Amino acid sequence: VDQEDFIKVQDIIQRKNRKHSTDEDTKDVIDFIEEFDLFTVIQCSDPATLLCDCGCSMVKDGQRDLKGDIKTH
Q1: Which residues lie below 8 Å from residue 43, measured CB to CB, with a gap of 6+?
Q2: pTM greater than 0.90 (yes/no)
Q3: What is the DSSP string of 12-52?
Q4: What total number of domains does the chain contain?
Q5: Is 52 part of a structural domain of the chain?
Q6: Range of the structural domain that residue 26 is part of
């Protein structure tokens, strides 16, 4: 490998290392998304639990039966 190609590759490696480095200033979800990327953050995060007005976890989208009563949250 000639010197010019070696230097180009080293520059690319340094940019990638800076982009994906762990930084003490990373505190917010937005910071993680900016430092890594949205797909990585979603893939590594625990799923969120949605709560209904009554405080129970939602498992469906509030389907109603024929009488109009809510079958599930």
Answers
A1: none
A2: no
A3: HHHHHHHHT---TT--SHHHHHHHS-HHHHHHHSPPP--B-
A4: 1
A5: no
A6: 3-44
